[in-house]
Amino acid sequence: MKVLKFGGSSVRDPQMILRVIDIARACLGEAPILVSSAMGKTTDMLEAAAASAEAGERSRAEQLIDRIESDHVHAAKALSTGSEREPLMTAVATLSAELRSLIHGITLIRECSPRSMDAVLSFGERLSTTIIAAAARERGLNATLVDARTLIRTDASFTAASPDLEATTALVSDRLDPQPGSLIVTQGFIASTTEGVTTTLGRGGSDFTATILGAALGADVVEIWTDVDGIMTADPRVIDGARTIPAISYDEAAELAYFGAKVVHPYTILPAVQREIPVWVKNTSSPESPGTRITGQADGTGIRAVASKSGITLVTVRSSRMLNAYGFLRALFAVFDRHKVSVDLVATSEVSVSMTVDGDTGLGLLEHDLQELGQVEIERGKSIVCLVGRDLFERSGFVAEVFAAVDPAHVRLISLGASEINLSLVVDEGETEGVLRRLHEKLLAP
Ligand code: ADP
Ligand code: ASP
Ligand code: MG
Question: Which domain holds residue 382?
C-alpha cells in the first residue's frame, strides 16, 4: 500500500494532471491512494475571496470566484472528452454554485469566522480531486473519489485543526480498502469534526494528510510529489547552488520543516515516525530523479541544510528578580501558557530571558501580563535562520565557521539544540537572505 501526495503546483493545469495520472498508473500494483492539493494558487484565491466578501468588496470576491470556476471548467473540459464529461461538468458546476452562495452569504453578513473560512477553503481540494478522479477514469484507471472529510477526524480548531489519530484510524479502516489495480483519490488538507463540520489542517497541510492516512493504513511508503527534486540543502528559490539531499532522518527533516523548509509541512513527519513508514520527496516534473528518502536512519554526520522562517517576534523580559531566585522561569512561562502563545527558542542570562514566538498576533495582552515580571521589550520583523545536521559539534571549528559566515549580520539570539541537530540564529528579516547565502557557501558548498 502506497500513499502518493501531489501539491498544488503538481496539479496546476491539465498537462500536470496528466503527469500525475501517469505516476499513479505506474504504481497501480501497489494499491495506491492519491492525495491531492487544490490546483495551483486556488487556496490563495479562495482565501482572498473570503476576505474580500467579509470586507464587503463584493465585486472583487465575485471576480475571484469567476476565475476559480473558469480555471476548473477549463481543466475539466481539457481532461474529459468521453463518458466522464457530462457528470464531471455537472459536478464542477454544482461545487462552484455552492461556493458562490457561501461567498454571497459572507458578503451579506460581513463576517468570515474561521469555521466559514474552512468551509470556503475546502472547495479547492474538492474541485481538484473531482477532476483528477474523472480524468483518471477516462484514461482507463479504476479510480474512486473518497471525501477526506469522512476519513480524517479533527478537533474544532478551525483553520489549524488537530487530527484525532485514533478516531481517524478507525474511520480509515472502516471506509478504505486499497486494492492492487485500483486507485483511491482523496483530498489533502480537509477534514471534519465529530459533528461533520468541515475543518482544515492549516495551510500546506496536505502533506500531513498523506502521512496521517499512511499511518492509519500502515502504508509501505508515503511519497510527497512536489516541484523540486526532494529536500535540498537550502530553498532553491533563494540559493542557486542548493543540492538534493539523498537521505535524511525523520528528526532532521522535522527540524527543517519546522524551521521554514516549506517543502514538507511541519507536522508531516510525526505520523510516519510512529509507524516507521519511509517518506520520499519527489519531483512530479522529473519522476526519474531519485528525490529524498526520509527514514529513522541517520545518513552519517555533519551539516545537512539551512532553512529560515520569517515573521518572528523576539520577546525579552528583564528583571533583577531573576538573580539567585528560583520560580521566575516558571512564572514567566505560565504567562505564555495562559495566553496560548508557543515559544520556539529561548536564551537566558542572569537578568534577562529572550524568547521567539511565531507572528505577532495576540501579543498585547501577553505583554501586559509579562510586565508584572519585569521590563518587557517586543521586537518584530525578525527571522530564525537554522542549520540542521547531525553531531554538528564534531566538525572542528564549527562555531567559528558559523560566526564567520554570519558576519556582518546582527545576531540577536543563538540556540543550539542539546540533540546537536539544530543551531538557530535570530536576525533581522532584511538580513536573512545574506546570512543563508553565506552559511550555504561556507558550510554546504560541495
Ligand atoms: P507543494 O505545492 O508541492 O506542496 P510547496 O510550495 O509547499 O509545494 O513546497 C515546495 C517548495 O518548497 C519548493 O518550491 C521550494 O521553493 C521550497 N523549499 C523551501 N526549502 C526547501 C528545501 N530545503 N528543499 C526543497 N524545497 C524547499
Ligand atoms: N491547498 C492547501 C494550501 O494551499 C493545502 C496544501 O496545498 O497543502 O495551503
Ligand atoms: Mg506544500
Answer: 304-443
- Identify the band that residue 323 occupies on the pLDDT scale cut at 50, 70 and 90: low
How crowded is the C-beta side of 40, counted as CA atoms within 13 Å?
A: 12
**Which of 209, 227, 245 lies at the terminal end of a domain, its last residue?**
227
Note whether 12 and 157 are same-domain residues.
yes
Residue 219 sits in the same domain as residue 345: no
CB 362 within 8 A of CB 429: no
Determine the distance separating the centroid of ligand 2 and the alpha carbon of 365, expressed in angstroms: 31
How many beta carbons lie within 10 A of that of residue 81, not counting itself?
9
State yes or no: pLDDT of 418 exceeds 80.
no
Ligand nearest to the CA of 204: 2
Of ligand 2's listed atoms, the one at least distance from the Cα of 205 is 8
d(CA 139, CA 128): 17
Domain assignment present for residue 247? The answer is: no
Q: Determine the pLDDT at residue 397.
A: 85
Question: Which candidate, 325, 336, 405, 322, places its Cα nearest to that of 367?
Answer: 336
pTM here? 0.94
Q: pLDDT at residue 393 above 80?
A: no
Could you tell me the CATH number of the domain that includes residue 60?
A: 3.40.1160.10
205 Cβ below 6 A of ligand 2: yes
**Amino acid (one-letter) located at 96:** S
Instruction: Examine the domain organization and report whether 216 and 332 are in the same domain.
Output: no
Task: Judge if 176 and 322 occupy the same domain.
Answer: no
pLDDT above 70 for 324: no
Identify whether residues 9 and 152 lie together within a single domain.
yes
Q: Which atom of ligand 1 is found nearest the CA of 238? A: 16
Query: 198-231, pLDDT tens digit by residue?
Result: 999 999 999 999 999 999 999 999 999 999 999 9
